[in-house]
Write a structure and sequence with these properties.
The protein has a single domain, classed as NAD(P)-binding Rossmann-like Domain (Rossmann fold). Helices cover 40% and strands 19% of the residues. The protein contains nine helices and twelve strands. The strands form four sheets. The protein has a six-stranded parallel β-sheet with strand order 2-1-3-4-6-9, sandwiched between helices. The longest helix has 21 residues. The chain is globular, with a radius of gyration of 19 Å. It starts with a strand and ends with a helix.
């Protein structure tokens, strides 16, 4: 029976993964930071040598609202610890990273072969985690997802539920990644031995205003959306190049991802 250690089991992606993993065929070890301190190498070493998982899925993430120390502990030091011990027991590591390893631009769509140059502390912490993994183990799959639904998307959802008017920029373009599509990709990549880094965002690069309009439509809300333009236009996008090239894998559109999430 395949043994999998799911780190960050109560995260949105972790919860979706638990629905997909058949406990009749998989022995699933589920932990969060409270149970196993993944920022402590000795604790990770002890737990992994005791349980000896064949696959580790790391969904742990310190958000941009966290302190700098916490961001680097969870997003950089923890992946270092996990990758060191993964290599020691010959386990495969699937790690969730972010497209925030790339800077905001006005028109560039980044592929996996482009050099990351993060322009935020959060992006730097995620890139540091990636580099540690590449340095300390060979059997890894790094998945760079887009913006999650905990930021702007959740703000719009909350506004719809409270019927509070909101403003959204028509010149701030982002890419999203839904929890369900991320979990499905991880599940589909479990048997994959084509190790490396993969971009995985929903397709399309909507503006914040377009996202807000779509959420209001899906929820059939009457909330008012004020369309604004920020002083500087910003654009952040990646191409799921390696998924398409090596796995023939297509992510859903950003509209499909939102609909699936909001109608669940």
């Amino acid at each position: 029976m395949l043994k999998i250690w799911l780190i960050g089991a109560t995260s949105k992606v972790g919860q979706e993964l638990r629905k997909l993993l058949d406990i009749r065929e998989i022995e699933l070890l589920e932990t969060d930071l409270e149970e196993i301190d993944i920022t402590n190498l000795e604790e990770v070493h002890r737990y992994m040598h005791m349980t000896r998982p064949e696959i580790i899925i790391n969904c742990a993430n310190a958000k941009e609202s966290a302190t700098v120390d916490d961001m680097f502990k969870v997003n950089a030091i923890a992946p270092k610890n996990i990758s060191i011990v993964s290599n020691a027991i010959n386990a495969k590591l699937i790690h969730l990273s972010s497209y925030e390893v790339f800077p905001v631009t006005q028109d560039i769509v980044y592929q996996e072969f482009d050099t990351p140059i993060p322009d935020t502390i959060y992006g730097k912490s995620k890139l540091a985690g990636e580099e540690f993994i590449k340095n300390f183990t060979n059997k890894y799959i790094i998945i760079r997802r887009g913006q999650t639904y905990t930021g702007f998307v959740q703000q719009v959802i909350d506004a719809c539920h409270s019927n509070t008017p909101i403003s959204a920029a028509s010149n701030q373009y982002i890419q999203l990644t839904s929890p369900k599509s991320t979990a499905k990709l991880i599940f589909d990549m479990l048997p994959c031995k084509d190790y490396g880094t993969y971009h995985a965002t929903t397709t399309g690069v909507p503006s914040q205003y377009e996202i807000a309009v779509e959420i209001v439509r899906i929820l059939n809300s009457s909330v008012t959306i004020e369309k604004i333009d920020n002083l500087l236009e910003s654009y952040k996008a990646v191409d799921n190049f390696m998924l398409r090239l090596t796995q023939n894998y297509t992510m859903p559109t950003w509209q499909e991802g939102l609909t699936e999430y909001l109608m669940a």
